[in-house]
Amino acid sequence: MAVVENISDRVAVMYLGQIVEMGTRAQLFGNPQHPYTRRLLEAVPVPDPRRERAPSLRLAGEIPSPVWKVGEGPERAHLVDIGDGHLVAQ
Description:
Strands 1-2-4-3 form a four-stranded antiparallel beta sheet. It has three helices and four strands, in the order H-E-E-H-H-E-E. The chain is an alpha+beta fold.
């Protein structure tokens, strides 16, 4: 994620093959809106062993299967512009 943050102008986050959030580097890293984006950023290791990350809530349940039968598929996420081209799945 550090490489993505340093080399990208715009970033898209995908979950189960669909874009769930897209925006500028500052929008995604500074103000993540989708729950998956927030969890993804919380999973990035803290490089300084003397610093501790605030504890986060644990997720419960199973991750949905990304495998679909032929002719079937997930509902496509509808992206909503929440301002300045920052798109979030609703």
